[in-house]
Automatic annotation (TrEMBL):
Gene3D superfamilies: 3.30.300.30, N-terminal domain of ligase-like (3.40.50.12780)
Naturally occurring in which organism (per UniProt): Pseudofrankia inefficax (strain DSM 45817 / CECT 9037 / DDB 130130 / EuI1c) (Frankia inefficax)
A family per Pfam: AMP-binding
SUPFAM superfamilies associated with the record: Acetyl-CoA synthetase-like
Domain AMP-binding enzyme C-terminal: 433-507
UniProtKB keywords: Ligase
Record-given protein name: AMP-dependent synthetase and ligase
Annotated AMP-dependent synthetase/ligase domain residues: 62-377
Taxonomic classification: Bacteria, Bacillati, Actinomycetota, Actinomycetes, Frankiales
Length: 521
């Protein structure tokens, strides 16, 4: 299970991706769709193998908003996905075609992904929690042969009455696509270079880099499955783990599910971890089943790491940095982090790191530059549409535009994305640093920092704050003074705005560009 910071490319590429073909065969297996090497096991065959074991034990459970928890065994998943595959085939979906999935976390979503793999098609989950105009743009870039939306839910359900067909054994040329969006708002659809074959390397627990991890795991999925971290848990399912999938993240329900179903692991963003840790009486909850947890998607505030270390133990926390393009991965365990506070670790699986300046020269130890990665495990990727390509060095290191530095021991420290950096009065300020300084204030429930146009400063540091108690928010002066006690004064917000709620996606991500545009740029 791989963590993704999900960083966005902000600069025009100086060198093309590992592949830029316009067709879906650009990176994958043979055009026939048949398994290649004798050891290849198609994802469809893997599903049938697991179903043939005949166990009636549930391996996938859905935690619905209405309080129900439907559960499915492998024979049931195999039958439902085959029924749906036949129906999708009848509507024209075939080998190498893209299947757009504009569905919330649900059994229908899982059936649809498994059905696509059985047909050798490429599932592309679509961000449904965006305005209609943006959803239309995403669909136009994906150009799916078929697109399943909420309007198709009854049709999906109706396929349960069909006879399960015998399906040929085929391999999708690409295992999936993932929707993202560049800093300019250009839709970015990342198509994996991996073929649709079962590969244990993409399902092993990240914690196994430090110690053995008991299997099968009971994996709780908190994020929408259009996000790479959540979608990747399906590969854990194919490796024998059990999934418990939340229809929508809710901190209180998460704690209850961990206790009731003895969850052993989950992946979360810092915002999710913050909301769970803020639950009243959280220290009395029974989290003893958690063997380890993984944090990704953004730099982790140090205070939050310490809080979770107190809840479950530092050695049960892993933090990772990577991106959907799969350029490489760094990771660190919580007990290592205590001696390298703020780090996201060192390269795993042969991942090499460089921190370079704007001219491509290596930055000295401890000095901030742009982070480049290279990994022998990178199977390649490509973008659909006109999203700008990632910048690449002549020897194959690539960057998603993130800024950071290396210490003397080779541990990487993230600062922020280059595109989010605020140049105020000629000085560089990284929003994540200001947010981490403010989030510990007891009067703040959530905060996002942006740079707004300013006649004196060029850009001024502006904090958008969701107060912990809307009826009694802290004053702007109090928060500015609090930040100045923790940061260099020029980094502290010059203005503060209070809102009812920070507008985050269901993956708890925030669109800084939209926040800036809504405030005049």
């Amino acid at each position: 299970m791989e963590s993704a910071l999900d960083t966005e490319a902000s600069d025009t590429a100086t060198k093309a991706d590992t592949a830029t073909e316009a067709d879906t065969e650009g990176l994958g297996g043979p055009d026939t769709g048949q398994p290649g090497a004798a050891a290849d096991v198609s994802l469809g065959r893997r599903i049938r193998e697991l179903a043939a074991e005949g166990s009636a034990d549930p391996v996938y459970r859905h935690i619905a908003l209405d309080g129900t928890e439907p559960a499915f065994s492998w024979p049931e998943l195999d039958r439902r996905s085959s029924q749906l595959a036949a129906a999708l085939s009848a509507r024209g979906l075939g080998h190498g075609d893209r299947l757009g999935l504009g569905l919330r976390n649900s059994p229908r979503f899982v059936f649809s992904v498994l059905a696509a793999w059985k047909l050798g098609a490429v599932p592309v989950p679509v961000r449904w929690d965006v305005p209609d105009w943006e959803l239309d743009r995403l669909r136009a870039v994906i150009e799916p042969r078929l697109y399943l939306s909420p309007a198709d839910l009854d049709w999906i359900d109706a396929t349960a009455d069909d006879d399960p067909p015998d399906l040929p054994d085929v391999v999708a040329p690409h295992v999936n696509g993932i929707c993202s969006s560049g800093s300019t708002g250009t839709p970015k659809i990342i198509v994996s270079g991996r073929r649709g074959v079962h590969d244990e390397r993409f399902a092993g627990p990240l914690m196994a880099n430090w110690r053995p991890v008991p299997r099968p795991q009971t994996v709780l999925v908190l994020a929408p499955m259009y996000h790479i971290n959540a979608f990747a848990t399906l590969f854990s399912l194919l490796s024998g783990d059990r999934l418990i999938v939340m229809e929508k993240f809710d901190a209180a329900r998460v704690a209850a599910v961990i206790e009731r179903h003895r969850v052993t692991t989950f992946t979360a963003t810092p915002t999710m971890l913050q909301r769970i840790a803020d639950l009243p009486g959280v220290e009395r909850r029974d989290f003893s089943s958690l063997d380890w947890i993984l944090q990704g998607a953004a730099p982790m505030p140090p205070s939050l790491v310490h809080r979770w270390a107190g809840l479950i133990g530092a050695d049960r926390i892993a933090m990772a940095y990577g991106m959907t393009e799969g350029l490489g991965l760094t990771a660190i365990r919580g007990d290592e982090w205590l001696t390298h506070e703020g780090s996201v670790g060192r390269g795993l699986g042969g991942t090499e790191l460089r921190v370079l300046d704007v001219d491509g020269a290596a930055r000295p130890t401890g000095e901030i530059g742009e982070i480049f990665l290279r990994s022998p495990g990178n199977d390649g990727y490509r973008y659909l549409g006109d999203a700008p390509r990632l910048r690449t060095t002549e020897d194959g290191f690539q960057t998603a535009g993130d800024m950071g530095y290396l210490d003397a021991d080779g541990f990487l420290y993230l600062v922020d994305r280059r595109v989010d950096m605020i140049v105020t009065g000629g000085a560089n300020v990284f929003p994540a640093e200001v947010e981490n300084a403010l989030i510990d204030h007891p009067g703040i429930a959530d905060v996002v920092v942006v740079g707004l146009r300013d006649p004196e400063w060029g850009r001024r540091v502006h904090a958008i704050v969701e107060p912990a108690d809307p009826a009694d928010p802290p004053s702007a002066a109090e928060l500015i003074a609090y930040a100045k006690n923790r940061l260099a004064h020029y980094k502290a917000p010059k203005t503060v705005e209070f809102v009812g709620a920070i507008p985050r996606s269901e993956a708890t991500k925030v669109n800084r560009g939209a926040l800036v545009a809504a405030r005049g740029g």
